[in-house]
Design goal:
36% strand; Thrombin, subunit H; globular; mainly beta; 16 strands; six-stranded antiparallel β-barrel; six-stranded antiparallel barrel
Length: 288
């Protein structure tokens, strides 16, 4: 994992080529048809935790009056790393987060009421429910939540990892997808591998990974192979469908989040039994 840090140290194309348009193209028509340049990724909507990074997130169908949510890593939970197989649900929390503006200056302090969801099994994810709604936060700070994409990103897509803790961004592309990523006791599935340009460090854990073209969050940054070891802590290894193990020293990874929206319904409420929800569920004595 990108270890938590102690203390306060993401052309309109003309179809039917050869067919003349029925009317002449006016200047206003041309302006309307011109491709819209994606907004540059900045820090607006990201948060700093005491030991990690994170983001104020909304689902595609979230409403202004819904309780707001903050996303980070499971290994950034205040109680420490969840054990393999452990899933934390609806656990009271009063954790605070520093919400940032686009220029990385402080916009507001946000306060959680609970950990809605947290795990390091199959993914490395934590989602906190806050004591404020999206509308209240926007009225107070002017900051809108970042939207989670509900579709998988594509290989080769330009992405930016935005760390609220370090107030630093890392730009690269989706290099590929990993069947299983193993690190110490934990295994994560269908992880994103970055191209080498994203040299993330400790404290960037939980950073949103943003699709540069859409501005939507497609993953949560969580780990990287630091010294070339195989499948040890801070040295994840890749395992393919046939069990073959590969190590990429210096390469970093994230966990996809397109499957998260299906698990949160009306009023930002977690529903692990909802249709399409594939997040791990609590089971047995490990459930909290």
């Amino acid at each position: 994992m990108k270890k938590p840090l102690v203390g306060a140290l993401f052309t309109v194309a003309l179809l039917g080529a050869g067919i003349a348009p029925a009317t002449a193209l006016t200047a206003s028509d041309a302006a309307a048809a011109k491709p819209t340049k994606p907004k540059a990724v900045d820090f607006a909507g990201t948060v700093a935790l005491s030991n990690c990074s994170g983001s104020l997130i909304r689902m595609p169908d979230s409403k202004p009056e819904d309780p707001a949510l903050v996303m980070s890593n499971g290994h950034c939970l205040e109680e420490g790393f969840p054990a393999p197989g452990e899933v934390v649900v609806d656990q009271p929390s009063s954790r605070t987060f520093t919400l940032l503006k686009g220029d990385a200056s402080e916009a507001a302090t946000l306060t959680a009421t609970k950990v809605a969801y947290g795990t390091m099994t199959d993914t490395d994810l934590s989602v906190y429910e806050l004591d404020s709604t999206y509308q209240q936060i926007e009225e107070k700070s002017g900051i809108k939540a970042l939207e989670l994409a509900d579709q998988r990103p594509e290989e080769g897509k330009a992405i930016t990892v935005v760390s609220g803790y370090w107030k630093k961004t890392y730009s690269c592309s989706v290099d590929g997808f990993v069947h299983e990523l193993r690190e110490g006791k934990w295994t994560w599935k269908d992880s994103i591998r970055y191209t080498p340009e994203c040299k993330t460090i400790g404290g960037t854990s939980g950073s949103p990974v943003i699709d540069d073209a859409t501005g939507k969050v497609v993953a949560v940054n969580n780990t990287g192979n630091e010294s070339g070891e195989e499948c040890t802590d801070n040295n994840p290894c890749e395992v393919d469908e046939n069990g073959n193990v590969t190590v990429h020293k210096g390469i970093n990874y994230a966990q996809q989040t397109y499957n998260v929206p299906a698990c949160f319904g009306e009023g930002s409420k977690l529903d692990l039994d909802a249709e399409g929800c594939t997040l791990p569920k609590p089971s047995g004595a490990l459930a909290k």
